[in-house]
Structure formats: structure tokens, C-alpha cells
Amino acid sequence: MDKRLWFSAATAAVGAGLMVATAVAAPTKASAPLKAGKATAGGTIVTELSTDVDYTDPQLTYYQPMWELEYATACKLMNYPDAEAPQGGQIQPEVAAGLPVISKDGKTYTFTIKPGYKFNTGEAVTALSFKRAIDRLTDPKLASSTSFLVSDIVVGAQARLDGKASSVSGVVASGNKLTFKLTHPAPDLLARLSTPPLQAIDSKLATNEDPQGVNNAASCGPYYISARTPNRSITIKRNPNYKGPRPHKIDAIQVNVGNTPEVIFQNVTKGTTDYAEDGVDPSEYAGIAQKYGINKKQFFTRPELEVDYLALNHLPGRLFANNPSLAKAVNYAVDRHAYTAQRGFLAGNRTNRILPPGMAGVTKKTEILKGGYPIAVDNSTLSKAKSLATGHTADGKGLMWAPNRGPGPLQAQIVQYDLKQLGIDLQIKLLPRAQQFTDARVKANADYDINWSAWGADYNDPFDFINILLDGSSIADTANNNDAYYSNAAFTNQMHKAALLFGEQRDAAYDQLDKAMMSQDPPWTPILNRLNRLFVSSHFGCFLYNPVFEVDFAAACRT
Amino acid sequence: MFQYIIRRLLWAVVIFAAVTVITYIIFFVIPADPAALAAGKSATPEFVAQVRHFLHLDRSIPVQYFYFVKNLIVHGSLGTSYVNRRSVDTIVGEAAPVTASLVFGGAILWLAIAVPIGILSALKPRSLADRMTMVFVLIGISLPVVWIGLILQWAIGFKLGWLPNAGYCDVINPPVGATCGGVVDWARHMVLPWIVFAILFAAIYARMVRSNVMDTLGEDYVRTARAKGAPERIVLIKHVLRNAMLPVVTMLGMDIAVALGGAIFTESIFGLPGLGRTAVQGLDNFDLPEVMGVVVFATLCVIIFGLLVDILYGFIDPRIRFE
Amino acid sequence: MTTALTGAGAAHAGPLLDVRELRTSFVTDDGIVGAVDGVSFQLGQGKTLGIVGESGCGKSVTNLSIMGLNPKTARVSGQALFRGEDLLKASPARLREIRGGEIAMIFQDPMTSLNPVHKIGDQIVEAVLLHNDVSKQEARSRALEGLKEVGIPQAERRLDDYPHQFSGGMRQRVMIAMALVNDPAVLIADEPTTALDVTTQAQILALMKKLQDDHGTAIVMITHDLGVVAEVADDIVVMYAARVVEQANVEDLFERPQHPYAWGLLGSLPRLGADVDRLVQIPGQPPSLLRPPNGCRFSPRCPHAFSRCRQEDPRLMPVTDAPEHLQACFLDEETKAREAVKTLTAAAA
């Protein structure tokens, strides 16, 4: 019937037209980047987050993008200089007049407070300002997830958390002197003191016990949070009372929340947003690199203090219990290149060691363990792997947990394939990340042989990597960050000893420990260190990336 | 009528209880631990236990449900989020107007499109206009909302820049630091979302209006009206439309009610901070109070709108009124 | 009781309604359907014309064609002269004036012929206001009078009721009131009692007769029920397969039916006291109007059909001694007379 034919023809034509339109839709031609003009003082840098921060309250927030913003707003006893690696990773006193005086037994640290720091409200920063921060951080009414920064080392912190004290007895403020009493020697105290939860807080915030936190507390750094509307925006302005040495070129930082990464990419391309703070869609990076080059104009890559790894479960009854041969075999067999490739363009650098570059003297981005496990897999590495594995594969069956989104499923399949070559049948269980994360930390639930895992540093000290993640003596029933359930008595001893050392000695000891563990009794198969891929607009000038806190807003300027 | 309303309200309570209990059960069947999540990645076991107690997750599930209901009825409160401790009332209260803007504006748009073209098609069946309507209907129903949303957002919002590519502007009280506000900004930002949201419904409703009007045109009383000498205009408006639109009213009420629960795709694509986005966030974070807040609100919308539609129907269709 | 200017009282030479060679065909996907194929009849002032036939014979379409109420797919030819004015050539505006004003129509199913969402008072008022430039109150009082006239009890209150609050018979009365409120010259009633039970049927017919007496309205009564036309009609037109097969005044048709179809109709009437085992049926089905048979359209079912019937189309011819009585059958008059008597006696027995 010609009528029906007409109808079908019309719809087919429309359908074809739509397909042609999609095929022809060219990728965005970005407007030619503005000539890098003279950096002007003042102006606002606009940044966008697709997911809102958890809090803007210094004692509550535990979210990397917020810590990145707080690098511009907080003033702390110790801080990292506004510089790229390696200087940017070297801790320095900020409000502390100098390095602390440490008692012989290593359990008492005394700081002198430099005068002249003021909050945006005008209140002066004193020793008390820091004590208040720690008292507030351990307030049981706040139940802050960052209380771990002091709860295990500062005397009286746990008591306060347990509701048994109204302040932390181990922190004493007297005049311009601030004294810490520790339960045991802990040289990583300095690194902990550089974290945002331990920044100076004013008297108003000190009395606040609202579990929701405060939206715009006063701060003493070059900037302060002037307003926040949850789920919508954060406004950060110049602290008029900041007279310190750190840079502060722009007038304000405007953080807008809620657009999809795709829209944020559009906005940065257009120049209406200056920084895609929690990234754009990963598939865009290849195009961005082609357009702007890498580390030249608007697209930058920097290593993160982070490692993606496969945790090898050492609990009794598991494949890797008392099985260093197999652990080594897996380190030979896993194709790190293929695994990393799943993360996308320039997403990470392969690694075969525990500590990431930028930590404990591991500085060059490609410094992998020389003579360590191969970064590339070929026939010789495979035969090495097989020979190590033979006789150690138990019943030849294993279980791997991986997240069900992102590159997780694909990466799991790569591991499955690689282990098949060793004669191990690896079953994959895909889980929502949140569920995988919490379940792996409960010893009774951790029934995997391999756990897809990743860990980013909370502060720049190898303790936060090795002791937190691999100390067998602190394995409990729940809340285990040691998801390899690794317990090697000798190494546990060594990491306790290393924790007491300072400076270069400390770095060297941890470096050695890393190498030793990996060569003798690998707890993991480390795969890659993530690369931060940063896309900024043509207006974002004076781009500076601090290896610990990432993009430095204080140093930024508008072009 | 009064008795009818009372009966409906009692049913509403039953539905509400069923929906909330089921949500609770589903949530707790998922083996993720919200306390461990809220405690953060470096928490000690003691701290996780503290957080569990802090969030009342150490109570049994029925007890938790009981406190939830008590909180809701006695204090009119939906609790606080596990993730950021904000009052869920506030979270839902902030998100609801955004979703309402999208849904009501979208509804007006889809009716403005669907009703005229549905009527026109019904009056001239098999004409060119009618066939074009049917092509439009087919396209509108077939295009996935996500696809058309992304394409329009990219083409019109970004490439051509005729309209804002994303974001929401408050009509009154824009948040500090907002770069837009007021009715004009709000409307400009809503045009693309309205279009995307309305397309599917416009297509469905156009078809429905067309078929209702065509059916009604064939009714005997329409013939009677013509036999009385009424001009076509009067026949159409007084006799045809009044009857043909009755089913549209029912459908409209339910569609709006369901959409108020969160037009997830449209809100996500255009970065609208509405209930759909809130629900997705809550689910991603295993944040039960936030999820329950949206569920409660959505259920209430469905119940209230259902009741309103029934009452309204009773007013416009006298046959129902006198049951 | 007001008499409209153009009502039944206006004098006119010749029949009130003169339909000549009316042909209506519908264009369908399958072809052209000839629903009315050369129908002619006349309606005198104040008289009642009954049009009888089976469903699908074209009796309703005939009247819809006169009123211009067919769907757009209809092609109408011929003449429908109302007081000398050809309705088939009238402008849409003129037709609208006539409909409901000078010629009113009521339909078969009172359940569905009234708009369920409007009060019946409003619907009658609408009929008044469409044809009279009067105030709403005046229209309402006319509606009230109309309701009283058709015998609706508590008419004042009932004006504000909805159709579903009336019984079937009451609804038909309302329809009649609505049709007669503007004192039309002609009332076309399309199967007005078919959907009603026998008792109500009788009441409605009695009502219509009374109203006709009071207003002098001419009525066209379309029905398949010979019993009904026997009651009310002055003249009868019998239709079969889109054509008129017999036409006579009521006495002549019932005493001397000439066409085999009429014999079948009369024979199939159930009569009280008749001692019959089975009702006489006319075997077979009416023919398709898409592809009507050659020759006499009734021939496939006619027990008296012979070769000429299948080849030639019988035309309407007057009966020898009754020129007003027309019939279309090739049978000779003796046979017809014989069969007529047979039918009537069998029926009367």
C-alpha cells in the first residue's frame, strides 16, 4: 500500500538523516587559545566540581578536592612550599618559627609560634589556635573521620574521642609555645601537622560542635572561604589580613558544583571555567593532548602520591598464605601495560614497587625498582613466572574482587588471563566500589585471593603507605586498611624501627624495606602510579602543581 | 465524597508504609557498611564502631525503621545524611523546587505541543499534517531521552551557544557566588531541559489526544450537536474536547507525580540540582536517609497527585461524581 | 407555546420535503460503496412518512444525506428540496440554520446521543440559542416548557440534571423536547424507539403523535419495525439495498403489498394469537453495496425470482389502479395479489 510505504520511507529518511548528523558531528573545534597575555593581578579563577565536597569544615572534610582548596586557605604549623616537585614535596615550617625542639626520647615536640598570622576576621593566630583544632578534631560529637591523624600518637587524644576528656591533654598551648606529648616516638608527626584538619582555627569555630560542620569558617592562609551553598558553590576570597610570604595574586576562587564532567570539559574549552577540578570525561584527554600538547599550555600531567595494586590475600587458607613463590610469580606474570592502558590516555605510570614517586626519596617518575619485576611482559618473563608458580598453585582456583564500574572489570579480566597462564583459574566478583571497600576491610568477609586496590597518601610520609597498609601486628577484625592481610614478622619489626627515624635515614630505611619486601615476600602486585591529568582554560596562568596538595590556587594568576 | 477522601487517605498510609519498609529492606540487604564508609578510609576499628553508634546503625533494622517513622511523624523530619550530616529535609527541600521547575514547565510545554497537534491530526486524518504528526510521534517515542539530551546539550548549548549549556539559576535567593539569578536566567537555563524532558511525553500525549479526539468525533452526541446546527467550532470545543480530554487529565496527574520523583537523566545531563540527582548521589554513597528522603517525597507526590486527579475527575465528569 | 416564524404554520405550495433521485456513495479503501442509489420520496406538511428496511439498506444514510451530516468521504447527488430549496446545494451556513431550526433530527440511542458532561437543560438551551436571538433566561424557559410538554415530571429541577440521571425512555423524551423546542417543520426520527422496551416504545410513539397534532410537525420515521410504522405513518417507503422497492400509503401497503420483500417483512411480523410454529424469515443476507448483484437486488433471496429478475433492474412503477402506490418487481399482478393475500392470511391466522 503506497500510504504505508510513504510512512515507512519518511521515517527511514529521518532515521538516516539522524545517523548522518551523528557521524558528521565533528569534535569541538576549540576557539584558538588566547595569546598568553601578561599575568594580571586580581581577577577570579573559576573551578568546577561534578561532585560536591563532603564538607568545607576543616575538621570534617576528608576529600581531596577540598584539601586542594584548603592549601590556599589554611595556615598550618608545617606546610609544603609553593613549588613543583622536588622542592614542593619537602616539608617546611610555616606558622612554626622553625623546626620543633624534640625531646631525647622522641616523645615531646615543642613548637614556637611565629607572630603576625591573622584570620580574615582579624583574630590573631596563637598556639591556642592549633590546640583548639586538635581538641575539635577529637570531639566525639563531631565524629570526624580525620581524627586518626592524632588519635594513635597524641596523648589524651583517644580519651577525648571516647568522651572521657574535654580536651586533649597531650597538647599544651602556653604563650607562643605549643607542646605535643606523644604516646610513642612518631617522626611523621610533622607530615601530619601539614594536613588541613590540623590547621589553625579561630575561637568561633573552636566552640562549634555541629556534626554538619561550618560552611565558611575563618582561616589564616592567603584566602578564606567566604560563602558556601551545599551542592551549588563555594566562594573563596583573599584574606586581607594575610601578611605571610606565600603568593596570593588572584582576588577570588569561585567553585561551582554539579555539572557533568562532559559539561565541565565544554566550559573549560569555552573559557567560562578555568579548571576542571575533579576531571573531565577520561575519553577526552587524548583529544586535549593533541590540541594543546602535554605540559605546554592548558593540559598538564603530574604524578600522584598514589598506587594502584593487587592485594594478595595472605590469610590462612588463601592462595597466597605463606606462598612467596606464587606472589613473585604473579608479579612476573601480570601485564602492567595492558592493565594501565584500561585507565585511558596518560592515566598512569607502571610501577613494580610499593612507594610512589615523590615519597621517601623516590623522585623520578620512572624510577621503578631496578632489577625488580618486569614492567613489560614477554616470553622470558612468562617462563620465569611459570617456573616460580609450579608446585605452588594449590588447587589452581582463585577469586578476585574488583569494582563493577570504570576500568575495574576490564583490568580484572587481564589479571584473569595472565593467571591462567600460570595454571590458576581466577573467578571474578564485581562489586560496587563502596561495598568492595568496606567488605575487604572486614577480616571475616575478605574471602578473595586478589583484591583490586588503590591507595592515596593522606600525608607525605612513607608511614602512611607502609605501616598503615602492611603492618601485620595491627590486623583487627574490622577496619583493616591492610587488605592483603600481610603479616611478616621480620618486616613488621623493620617498619616499626623505620618509623622512629628522621630525615634521610628515614627515607633510606623505607626505601630498603620496600625493595626487600618486594623481592623476598611480596605483599602485593603494584601496577601503576596514577597520573593526574589537569585541564585548565587559557585564562589560568602561573600554573603550579604542588606534589602533595596538587593545583596551587594561591600561586595562580589570571591571563 | 467525604467518605471517599477518607478511604483514599487510609490507603495512602498503607502505601506509604509498604514503600518505606521495602526501601529499608532493600537497603539493608545490600552488604555495604554505611558506617565504615562514613568513617573514612583510614579509620580504626574503634572509630568505625563510634561512627556506627553515631549514625544509629548499631540498632536493629526494625528499631531503625521505628525511629525513622517516629522522627517523620512526630518531628516531621527525614533524618540526617550519613555522608555529610545535613538534614534530609533541607536536602529534599532544596532539590524539590528544581525538579518541580523542570516537571511543571515541561508539562506545560508538552501539553502545548501535544494537544494542538493531536487535535489537528484527529480533525484531518491521513492528511499531510496528520502524517507528519505521526512521524514526530514515532521519533519522540523512539529517541532515548539520554541521547537526545546529550545531543541537544552539545549542539545547541555548546556548539551553537544559543542557550546555556547547563546549570540552574534560582528565581529568588540565588546562592552567594552564583553568576545568575532571576526569572529570565532561570527560564533560559530551563529551555533545553524542558525540551528534552517534554519530547517523549509530547509524543505519547499527541498520539493519545489524537486517538481520543478521533474516538469522540465518532460519538453519537457529536452527531446530535451537528444535527442541532452547531458550528464546527462549538462542536469541537464544547462537545468533543470536553470529553476527549478526560483521560488526558488522569494520565497527566500520574505522569507529573512520577516525574516529580526525579527526572534523573535530564537533571544529570544539564547539571540541575534536583531530586533525581539527589537520589543517584544517595545510592552511590549508600546514604540511606538521603535515599529515603527522595523515596518519601516521591511516594507522597504520587499519593497526593493521585488523590487530586481523582477529585478533579469527579468534578469534570459528572458521571463519576454521583457514585 | 410559541410558533416559530418558519414553523409548520408557514404555507408552501407542493410537498414540504421533496427528495429526487438521491444518490450517496462513500469512497473507501476497498472501493466505492453506493449506500443510497436513486431514492425519491415526498413528505407533505404535517404528515408522517415511514421509511422501513433492514440494517444497512440506506435508510439512515438517506436522511443524513439530506441534512448534510455525512462524513467527508461521502459523495451526494440528486435533489433534496425543502420548501423548494435544494439542501444538497445549500451553503454550510444555511445548512446549519436549517438543522435544528427548520428540520430537526433525533437518533436511535438516547444513551449516547446526549453529551454526558453537560446538563440536559444546557443542551436544550444550546439548541434554542443556536437558532434564536434571545436571552439565556428566555431560552431556559423555553427548554422548561419543552420538557413539560414531553412529560418529564419535576421538569424545573430536572433541567439541571445530567443525562445519566435519566432512564432510557426519559432520555428519548429529552431528545424529542430538544428537537422540537424550535418548532421545526420537519422532524426526522431515526429509529427512535429501537433501543427502548416495548412499553416505553408505545409511550414514545404516542407522545410523538400528540406533539405532531399540537405542532403540525411533519415526521420522517425511520425504522425496521413495521409495527411502528403501522402505528404512526401516513405513507411508507420500503427500502432494500440502497433502493426503494415499494412505496404506498399505509393502508395500501398493508392491504395490498406488491413486492416480495414487503411480503417477507409482513410475514415475519410476530402477531398475537397467531398459531405458528416458527416466524417466517427471509432467508439469506442483504447484498454487498460495494459490488451489488446484477438485475434485481432482491433476486438472490426472492423465492419468486426468475431469469428476467437476474438480468434486468426493475424500476419503480405505479400499480395499475393505484398510481400513488409504486413498486419495483417484474412479477405479474395476479401472482402479486395472490401472494399478498397469502401473506396477510397466514399472518392473521
In words, what does this structure look like?
Chain A is α+β, with helices and mostly antiparallel strands and 559 residues long. Chain A is 29% helix and 18% strand. Chain A has 17 helices and 22 strands. In chain A, the strands form six sheets. In chain A, strands 12, 13, 14, 15, 16, 17 and 18 form a seven-stranded mixed β-sheet that branches. Chain A has a five-stranded mixed β-sheet with strand order 8-9-10-1-11, sandwiched between helices. Chain B is mainly α. Chain B is 76% helix and 0% strand. Chain B has 15 helices and no strands. The relative contact order of chain B is 0.14. Chain C is an alpha/beta fold and 349 residues long. Chain C has two domains: 224 residues, 3-Layer(aba) Sandwich (Rossmann fold); 106 residues, no CATH class. Chain C is built from 13 helices and twelve strands. In chain C, the strands form two sheets. In chain C, strands 6-7-8-3-9-10-12-11 form an eight-stranded mixed β-sheet, with helices on both faces. Chain C starts with 16 loop residues before the first strand and ends with a helix. At the A-B interface, helix 1, strand 8, strand 9, helix 8 and helix 14 of A face helix 2, helix 3, helix 6, helix 7 and helix 13 of B.
Kindly list the characteristics that best describe this protein.
heterotrimer, A: 559 residues, alpha+beta, seven-stranded mixed β-sheet, five-stranded mixed β-sheet, 17 helices, 22 strands, 29% helix, C: 349 residues, alpha/beta, Rossmann fold, 2 domains, eight-stranded mixed β-sheet, four-stranded antiparallel β-sheet
Q: Quick one: CATH superfamily of the largest domain in chain C?
A: P-loop containing nucleotide triphosphate hydrolases
Mean pLDDT of chain B: 88
Number of domains of chain B: 2
Q: In terms of quaternary structure, what is this?
A: heterotrimer
Domains of chain C (count): 2
Give the CATH superfamily of the largest domain in chain B. MetI-like
Helical run tally of chain C: 13
Main beta sheet strand tally, sense and closure of chain C: 8 strands, mixed
CATH second-level architecture of the largest domain in chain B: Orthogonal Bundle
Helix % of chain C is: 25-40%
Which chain pair shows the most residues in contact?
A-B, 61 and 62 residues
Largest sheet of chain B: none
Total number of strands of chain C: 12
Give the class-level CATH name of the largest domain in chain B.
Mainly Alpha
What topology, given as strand order, has the largest sheet of chain C?
6-7-8-3-9-10-12-11
Which stretches of chain C of 5+ consecutive residues score pLDDT under 50? 1-9
